[in-house]
Amino acid sequence: MSIDVSGVNKRYGEFVALQDINLTLPTGQLTALLGPSGGGKTTLLRIIAGLETADSGSVVIEGVEATRLPVQKRNVGFVFQHYAAFKHLSVARNVAFGLEIRKKPKDEIRAKVDELLRLVHLDAFADRLPSQLSGGQRQRMALARALAIEPSVLLLDEPFGALDAKVRKELRDWLRRLHDEVHVTTVFVTHDQEEALEVADEIVVVNEGRVEQVGSPDQLYDAPANEFVMGFLGEVTVLGGVRLRPHDVEMTTAPVPGALEGRVVRALRVGFEVRVTVDVAGQDAPVTVVMTRTHARSLGLEPGTAVWLAPAEGATAVASATPAARPAPEAVAG
Amino acid sequence: MAETRRASAGPTTYVLRVLVIAYLALLVAWPVVLVGTNAFANGTQAMVDVLADPDTVHALQLSAIAAVVATVINTVFGVTISMLLVRKEFPGKRVLSALIDLPLSVSPIVVGLALMLVYGGRNGWLGPTVEDWGLQVVFATPGIVLATAFVSLPLVIREVVPVLHELGTEQEQAAQSLGASGWQTFWRITLPSIKWAVIYGVVLTLARSLGEFGAVKVVSGNVLGETRTATLAVEERYLNFDQEGAYALAFLLASVSVLAILVVFVLRARGTRHRAFERQS
Amino acid sequence: MTVALEGRPGRARPTLVNHNLTTASGIGLGVSMIWFSLLVLIPLTAVLVTASSGGWAEFWRSITNEQTRAAIRLTVMAAASVTLVNIVAGTAIAWVLVRDRFPGKGLLELVIDIPFALPTIVAGLVLVSLYGNDSPLGLHLANTSGSVYLAFLFVTLPFVVRMVQPVLEELDMEVEEAAASLGAGRATIFRRVVLPSLAPAIAAGAALSFARAMGEYGSLVLLSGNLPFESEVTSVRILSAIENDNQAAAASIAAVLLVISLLVIVALDILQRRVARRG
Fold first, then answer.
1. What pLDDT, in 10s, does the model give residues C61-72?
2. Which of A239, A272, C140, C273 is 20 to 30 Å from the Cα of B170, by its Cα?
């Protein structure tokens, strides 16, 4: 096992940042730490890196007890959200930094830097200063810099958080491909569930200082352990005391046994899909149903149309204790 | 940033502009120019005479030595204290950061007196002990250095602290994650990043140190050819009715300080352009 | 515990331990503190101790000596008036430097800093050349109380300007535009929108300017003539006491100045925190 975190606790004054964290990440895996801001995921990453110390618990990296090791001795590659580029050094000198500190021979450093700059497609920019690069290029430079020291683990703190949407998507695909090539154990922090679902082999959902669930993207999406995970990973609607995804609600215009009757309030076309809002008798909040445009047209929906709603077969559902509890705004935003 | 900030030019703008220019011309610019014209009222003779006088040359040397030593001390001390104030937590930090500014608001005469009371050879708190070790402080060069270092103490710190704050700690953490020790991080990452602030601080400290008068007057003893500094020599010449000599020497000192502000001014303009560029890209 | 950490939000968090010094930085702090104590703290303490060594009555007699009282009165009056002038003039100058544009503005920036960098004795000589007995303007201020006001105005010029200027630069013009769109005139905008944002910076500059004037000595030597009851300031009284070998009296008057400096430092600390919070 590459990273072994056990019994880690961390408080800042009264604020409990992490509470009894136990986590084992296998070698070579690409893991996402996913959760809302302030949930403790960055603190956990920094504790693994040694940039922060835990109040109690232990961290083992590649079989080496690292709890008391300073960051310099852990041999981790760390990539910061805001790049932390060394502004006074050229791109090549940035990448060479860790090797210079390790007093490697000059030829070896030059060869390694060239190789890495090619890997991150920055070989044409070796002599530029970071201020002459775009955000995405700077982050690729930071990645090359972290990889130069051949780290046992690569840690990325919201690596694409400061970039605009298009670049973020490109870099995300590129990171996945890079990982398949380099195969270094990688952990990245993100609050973007789409990013985690798309890139990671395994996702660790962290919230309020605790691990809510660990699993593959499919496991998390299809079998969320609780309301929070379900809400954080995608949109949720409540139908008859059950929380489920809006596209898992079956809608008919004729009564079906076991289905709840409701009335269409609004049908909104968003691109290729249609979002229908339905008032269900005896329920405070309306139900949201998502379906394809073709399906919606075949039903002939108008405001006021009477419809019957039921969970689709095999739908992901979590019993709702408190219907309006813990909304996850980031997840609903899409 | 500032270039788009243009008040719509109404009559108030022009009146204000004229008033400000007139005020600064009368208070600063014209008098400073007059020192130049007075110094060269009879050609370069006064300047030549001043520079030919061995006592004046000694005074200039003494001022230069005291200023350089004080600047070196204040630079090392200033960068250390700035790093501690910005990067570290320790009890009494806020009190220290407030007290650091004290030398800027203490009268130079009070500075001189305070140093006399502690380092005076006859009845100072520490003076007799230090003199037993063979080191005379007051009425000697060490006293002049102390007085000079006192008055210019906060200048480096005031330049460096805000830059360190703005710099943040991410680059330093990145360096450490790549294996750099605290010392390596400081020399390779932090110092190059605060380089310009340190240079401004040094230039300002040097200018302020060269020009110190009151505190030096109290602790130096003002002995001709021994502990008389350049600024004390200006007073002496003026009071001895050698106005031309006083103006010539004053012109020399004023040139150094104007040069110092010019250097800082140019460096700052450079820095601003650099930052603006960085924000753009 | 105060937490003044920097960096990105979310990184800076309060810690429970009250220090995070490594061995090296601990030694750095120790050496720095010894130097700071030897150079600044112990000497200034010596002033206060010496002032109180003769008891309260002795202290009081020293500072209420008729000539000393006149000197303190003149210094306080001049420092206060000059500070008031600086509040207005300094703000106006900062305004022109930030908001106005005309050829030669860079030169003005340079002129502002001259009083700060110029040796004080040279500053005195500079002023004598325009306002002394050979004044090309026909103004003979030398050896009058007016010269004290003039010298103070010169040496304190940069303080308010340099405190206000950066705040004014950072000030969001949109707020003023919003006020204008709501119907406020220029005077109203300045009074109700701009001035309140500048107030802490102006106050900090005023405090520095007052402190500097209270302790001024060098620029007066050649200009004021140091006439008792006319143009003699507090610093000169301290120097006379030192020269008469009366250290106790010197320390007593110095203690008054020192207490004023300390008050200014406290005020500054509070004001600068406020400036920082607004910025």
1. 988 889 999 999
2. C273
As a whole number, mean pLDDT of residues A85-114 equals 94
Could you give the 3-state DSSP secondary structure of residue A267?
strand
Could you tell me which chain A residue has the CA closest to the CA of B278? A131
Q: Token pair for residue A242?
A: 């059950």
C249 found inside a domain? yes
The ipTM of this complex is 0.88
Q: Measure the CA angle with vertex C196, ends C190 and C198; round to 5°.
A: 90
Closest CB from B173, B178, B189 relative to A98: B178
Range of the domain at C66: 48-278
Domain count, chain C: 1
- How far CA A21 is from CA of A5, B194, B275, C244, in Å, comes to 7, 39, 42, 75
Does pTM surpass 0.80?
yes
Amino acid at residue number B49: D
* Dihedral sign for Cα atoms in the order C212, C224, B66, C49: negative
> Which segments of chain C have a pLDDT < 70?
1-18, 276-279
Chain C residues whose CB is inside 8 A of the B130 CB are: none
Nearest-CA distance B169 → chain A (Å): 9
Report domain extents, chain B: 1-39, 45-280
CATH superfamily of the domain spanning B45-280: MetI-like (1.10.3720.10)
Q: Which residue has the tokens 């050896």?
A: C143
Q: Do A77 and B174 touch (CB under 8 A)?
A: no
CB atoms within 10 A of CB C73: 12
Q: How far apart are CA A174 and CA C88, in angstroms?
A: 59
The C-alpha atoms of residue C33 and residue C50 are separated, in whole angstroms, by: 23
Q: What is the CATH number of the domain that holds C160?
A: 1.10.3720.10
**pLDDT tens-digit series, residues B26-77:** 999 998 998 888 888 888 888 888 889 999 999 999 999 999 999 999 999 9
Chains contacting B (3 or more CB pairs within 8 Å): A, C
